[in-house]
């Protein structure tokens, strides 16, 4: 891509990656046909569809309408294909529904982005509290339950998104009451709770940090629209600010981006909410802001690379602190190649103003790092090549096309975004 554009126009936000993958896993909880809409056209959805297929489900996807149907058999398989599972971290979400409904789940220790150690202890301990026997056999996590799981009170050490989701999906068919305390509160979890409720689950406290689940004997398939992707929306919003542009983010939910939009306003952006989305515009060089990532409603770690990229072109010094993952700063190495002035220390990074980023060849280490590098390339002088863009495909549908429609000089080559 060649830097120097001002993003302007409108972009439509699809359903959230981190919701739809769990909705797909939840379809295992009931035999019959689940219908999901606003399904984004991203790689991780394809992989998750393959995971479900190997478990015996029949998955149909209509890319034109963004609709997916999943026909779940009466007796799904217990073991997901290890090669598929290792490709996406979200595949661990099949653990709760399978052990809850079928009494056995086998999931190869999952993969996903290289952004930290990403342990599963809270998933495992929570399932054990519900009565499952969980072991690791040859690199495969095996959870078994001789009868129905038994409701229990579970306190999470940290509001883990994945553990909250797994325990929710295990608890909905358990005998009695399950309480998940210190639960994660991300909008994608509320979306999953909504879907489970539509399937017949009984959940109280949706959106809060204490979830009370009254187990039911069985669930039925449901039809559900995926919540819009707040991280994709936030990425375009940051892009608008960095390029001093003016973008209407249609279908973006401003209420899910409270602190992000607050920070962008503090940087000097004008944010107007209304008309099925929100508009972000910027006239001047952004002012620097400090950011601390935290579980929702804190600043999302999934917007960390993008906000560091913004700080690299802002005036003033900013301090960014990452509290969720331990390796997300790998991205900073690549940003340095573009001339960013920054220094990392533990989980902090200090970003000083660069006179001008300069185009270079850089490499995406994960989906959000890839998005951050593309945003940086949009404001760098000259040509930037981003390699390993398959990471971006995991979470951003039509990223290059959307940016081009907003005025960016960007194109995709076989394995690079370049010009
Ligand atoms: N953790 C543990 N033990 C556990 C579970 C988590 O130590 O049993 C730690 C992790 O190592 C990590 C922290 O807790 O340091 C947060 O992990 P969490 O479980 O909350 O995250 P996740 O479920 O693995 C999801 C998203 C991530 C997003 C995080 C935080 C999906 C598929 N992934 O991951 O999304 O960053 O929540 O919001 O939903 C992305 O989309 O780029 C992405 C990485």
TrEMBL record:
Keyword match Cytoplasm: yes
GO cellular-component term (any): cytoplasm
Broad class of the protein's primary localization: cytoplasm
Source organism superkingdom: Bacteria
Keywords tagged on the record: Cell cycle, Cell division, Cell shape, Cell wall biogenesis/degradation, Cytoplasm, Peptidoglycan synthesis, Transferase
PANTHER family xref list: UDP-N-ACETYLGLUCOSAMINE 1-CARBOXYVINYLTRANSFERASE
Residues annotated to bind phosphoenolpyruvate: 17-18
Domain Enolpyruvate transferase intervals: 3-403
Biological role: Cell wall formation. Adds enolpyruvyl to UDP-N-acetylglucosamine.
EC number: 2.5.1.7
Recorded GO MF terms: UDP-N-acetylglucosamine 1-carboxyvinyltransferase activity
Protein name stated in the entry: UDP-N-acetylglucosamine 1-carboxyvinyltransferase
Pathway: Cell wall biogenesis; peptidoglycan biosynthesis
Xref: SUPFAM superfamilies: EPT/RTPC-like
Organism: Pseudofrankia inefficax (strain DSM 45817 / CECT 9037 / DDB 130130 / EuI1c) (Frankia inefficax)
Family, as annotated: Belongs to the EPSP synthase family. MurA subfamily.
Record gene name: murA
Pfam families membership: EPSP_synthase
Active site: 113
BP terms from Gene Ontology: cell division; cell wall organization; peptidoglycan biosynthetic process; regulation of cell shape; UDP-N-acetylgalactosamine biosynthetic process
Coiled coil stretches, renumbered: none
Gene3D superfamilies to which the protein is assigned, alphabetical: Enolpyruvate transferase domain
List of residues binding UDP-N-acetyl-alpha-D-glucosamine: 89, 302, 324
């Amino acid at each position: 891509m060649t830097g120097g554009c001002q993003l302007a126009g409108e972009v439509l936000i699809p359903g959230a990656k981190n919701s739809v993958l769990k909705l797909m896993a939840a379809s295992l909880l009931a035999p019959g046909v689940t219908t999901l809409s606003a399904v984004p056209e991203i790689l991780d959805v394809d992989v998750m569809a393959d995971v479900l297929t190997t478990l015996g489900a029949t998955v149909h996807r209509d890319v034109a309408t963004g609709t997916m149907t999943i026909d779940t058999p009466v007796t799904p398989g217990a073991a997901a294909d290890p090669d598929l599972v290792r490709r996406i971290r979200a595949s661990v979400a099949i653990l709760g529904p399978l052990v809850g409904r079928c009494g056995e789940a086998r999931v190869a220790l999952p993969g996903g982005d290289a952004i930290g150690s990403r342990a599963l202890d809270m998933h495992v301990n929570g399932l054990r509290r519900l009565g499952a026997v969980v072991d690791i056999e040859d690199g495969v996590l095996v959870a078994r339950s001789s009868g129905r799981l038994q409701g229990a009170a579970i306190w999470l050490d940290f509001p883990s998104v994945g553990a909250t989701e797994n325990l929710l999906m295990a608890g909905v068919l358990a005998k009695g009451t399950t309480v998940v305390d210190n639960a994660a509160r991300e909008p994608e979890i509320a979306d999953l709770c909504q879907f489970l409720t539509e399937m017949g689950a009984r959940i109280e406290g949706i959106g809060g940090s204490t979830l009370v689940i009254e187990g039911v004997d069985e669930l039925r398939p449901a039809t559900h629209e995926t919540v819009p992707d707040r991280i994709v929306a936030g990425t375009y919003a940051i892009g608008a600010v960095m390029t001093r542009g003016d973008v209407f983010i249609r279908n973006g939910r401003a209420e899910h981006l409270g602190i992000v939009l607050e920070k962008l306003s503090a940087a000097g952006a004008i944010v107007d909410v209304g008309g099925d989305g929100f508009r972000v515009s910027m006239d001047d060089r952004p002012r620097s802001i400090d950011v601390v990532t935290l579980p929702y409603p804190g600043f999302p770690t999934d917007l960390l690379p993008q906000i560091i990229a913004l700080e690299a072109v802002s005036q003033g010094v900013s301090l960014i602190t990452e509290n969720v993952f331990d390796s997300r700063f790998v991205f900073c190495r690549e940003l340095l190649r573009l001339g960013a002035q920054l220094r990392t220390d533990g989980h902090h990074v200090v970003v000083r103003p660069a006179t001008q980023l300069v185009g270079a060849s850089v490499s995406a280490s994960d989906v959000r790092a890839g998005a951050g590098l593309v945003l940086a390339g949009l404001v760098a002088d000259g040509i930037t090549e981003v390699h390993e863009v398959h990471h971006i495909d995991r979470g951003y549908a039509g990223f290059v096309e959307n940016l081009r429609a907003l005025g960016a000089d960007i194109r995709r080559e076989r394995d690079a975004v370049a010009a």
